[in-house]
């Protein structure tokens, strides 16, 4: 299921605006994952870059694999994508020089 990953960087159903307010306090290359606001099976990766904030779609394919943006290879799960791009550059225009370095942990009250 979609909630099978319990990761500190997964924030669930927060909005793009909420994601940006969390990232605003963080350093460049900080990121979090949230539910996509437009499509219920997908997720969004929100990232702080030198230019501001970027929101990239993590889409589920027909065969239940995941892709980041249009140009990534296929992954079996969202955590695999995050792990892969924590040590490699993102395949996203405007973030080609960046990796996912600093997970923004969900604050549990």
Automatic annotation (TrEMBL):
BP GO terms, sorted: apoptotic process; signal transduction
Q: Does this UniProt record's set of keywords contain Transcription?
A: no
Pfam families for this protein: SH2
Keyword RNA-binding belongs to the record:
no
One of the record's GO molecular function terms = phosphotyrosine residue binding
Q: Which residues form the SH2 domain?
A: 9-104
Instruction: Note the SUPFAM superfamilies from the entry.
Output: SH2 domain
Which keywords does this chain's UniProt record carry?
Apoptosis, Phosphoprotein, SH2 domain
The family database entries (Gene3D superfamilies) matched by this protein are listed as: SH2 domain
Q: What is this protein called?
A: SH2 domain-containing protein
| Organism name | Sinocyclocheilus rhinocerous
Its lineage opens with: Eukaryota, Metazoa, Chordata, Craniata, Vertebrata
């Amino acid at each position: 299921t979609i909630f099978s990953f319990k990761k500190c960087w997964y924030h669930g159903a927060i909005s793009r605006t909420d994601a940006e307010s969390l990232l605003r306090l963080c350093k460049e290359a900080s990121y979090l994952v949230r539910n996509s606001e437009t499509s219920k099976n997908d997720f969004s990766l929100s990232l702080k870059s030198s230019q501001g904030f970027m929101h990239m779609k993590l889409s589920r394919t027909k065969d239940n694999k995941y892709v980041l943006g249009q140009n990534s290879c296929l992954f079996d799960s969202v955590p695999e994508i995050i792990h892969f791009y924590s040590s490699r550059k993102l395949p996203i225009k405007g973030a080609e020089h960046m990796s996912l370095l600093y997970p923004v942990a969900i604050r549990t009250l």
